[in-house]
Amino acid sequence: xxxxxxxxxxxxxxxxxxxxxxxxxxxxxxxxxxxxxxxxxxxxxxxxxxxxxxxxxxxxxxxxxxxxxxxxxxxxxxxxxxxxxxxxxxxxxxxxxxxxxxxxxxxxxxxxxxxxxxxxxxxxxxxxxxxxxxxxxxxxxxxxxxxxxxxxxxxxxxxxx
Amino acid sequence: xxxxxxxxxxxxxxxxxxxxxxxxxxxxxxxxxxxxxxxxxxxxxxxxxxxxxxxxxxxxxxxxxxxxxxxxxxxxxxxxxxxxxxxxxxxxxxxxxxxxxxxxxxxxxxxxxxxxxxxxxxxxxxxxxxxxxxxxxxxxxxxxxxxxxxxxxxxxxxxxxxxxxxxxxxxxxxxxxxxxxxxxxxxxxxxxxxxxxxxxxxxxxxxxxxxxxxxxxxxxxxxxxxxxxxxxxxxxxxxxxxxxxxxxxxxxxxxxxxxxxxxxxxxxxxxxxxxxxxxxxxxxxxxxxxxxxxxxxxxxxxxxxxxxxxxxxxxxxxxxxxxxxxxxxxxxxxxxxxxxxxxxxxxxxxxxxxxxxxxxxxxxxxxxxxxxxxxxxxxxxxxxx
Lengths: 161, 385
Fold this sequence. Notes:
The complex is a heterodimer.
Chain A: H1 3-10, H2 16-23, H3 27-39, E1 62-70, H4 77-86, E2 91-96, E3 103-109, H5 112-123, E4 129-136, E5 142-143, E6 146-147
Helix pairs in contact in A: 2-3
Chain B: H1 5-9, H2 16-23, E1 29-30, H3 42-53, H4 66-80, E2 90-93, H5 95-107, E3 113-118, H6 124-130, E4 134-139, H7 150-156, E5 161-167, H8 179-191, E6 195-199, E7 224-229, E8 242-245, H9 248-261, H10 267-279, H11 281-305, E9 317-318, H12 329-340, E10 342-343, E11 345-346, E12 358-361, H13 366-382
Parallel strand pairs in B: 1-10, 3-4, 3-5, 5-6, 6-7
Antiparallel strand pairs in B: 2-8, 7-8, 9-12, 11-12
Helix pairs in contact in B: 3-10, 4-10, 5-9, 7-8, 11-13
């Protein structure tokens, strides 16, 4: 992967000036590389990773992983059905899978009922959807490479030779 | 109780007072740490935990676990084309520290002189003294990027000179040597019939050029004691695992001393080291990429804020000049600590040639480095530098 991407993936706040120093390139070269990455849709957007485990309250969303088995549609395969599913704002992620089911859909809703309603009223009745299995997430430990807990303190001695 | 002569002459760490100052202060950003800021990769820690669960709590062979030596031999052969036999030419030690101590004790007699390029890592001089030898320091000047030359060796050698402790990439300067430079040094070493104690602990962290192991130079293997370990590349400082590779009769002698003093390296550390060799390369490369970026960042920032700094080839240290401030190394370090709460190590900790310099470790998260350099910039601006 491009080193600029690696740096931004680790810390999206890194400025072009800092990246330029780290990679020993000119600031303008870095700026135009980033522009290009954005234009090509490789960098989609810059987000903040929030440890939602720590800001949980009565209004927190619940999340479910839903296994969906579908009948692929002639000529367009799975993409057409996936597209119909992921357009719903309740869907936060959607993947095509190998194995015993076809699509893995991650759904977020304000409570269990919202999610069940979505499955019962939107997802299951869809043409081509043959069946669903819903798993609610109880606790998150790690997400997208980040362990969801306070970073540990540096345990090294302040000075060593 | 009486204290032995060598234990009396070896100096305590010259900057102990400064250390205590740092330790007594809160909210300090420390760029004074001589070890990786990464925690040992999980697969390595997990392997050690598993070995404990399985009940591996015994002594091992004095030389180190057979499987570890086999892996090591394979690793050195594949990665650096260094050929050592795992049965007779290899010894697993408690870090490079023990390996160097054993190597000196096995080969240096009372009164023998050992050359040490300086600024140098703090233990080399005392190590030589402890085995009755006499350290002879060769000043490595900044105008040559803190490198010594064959000529320097020639000038410092006499009939009593028996060895040279060579460390590249270097702690504290980060300086390394190219193959032609090493070739010329090797010829001088051969002329004077010296033993080479080659401490290459930072070799994996070489960013400019490629690292040439000393035993790979023509006719050098037979006179080199190759010292290396897991601490820096695999972020395993606290595990204390290193190794020495050398001709059979040297390893035989070193093993005898090791057997009567240390017996063996703790088995869980050896288990961890074995995992590092088997499945460690990916993490090493990821850490190295990160260090390299930090190096570029730190060197450029130092030069911008008015602390000229040569570009180190390896390790994770920058060694900028602070001469422009008119302060001594110690004064600079103390004031910077007191006024801006940034800790660096005065260059004089590594010998008199370090006067006018400080060691900055970039084994610290990028955010810390950014903040520390901003504080240093403020510190210098106040002085109109």
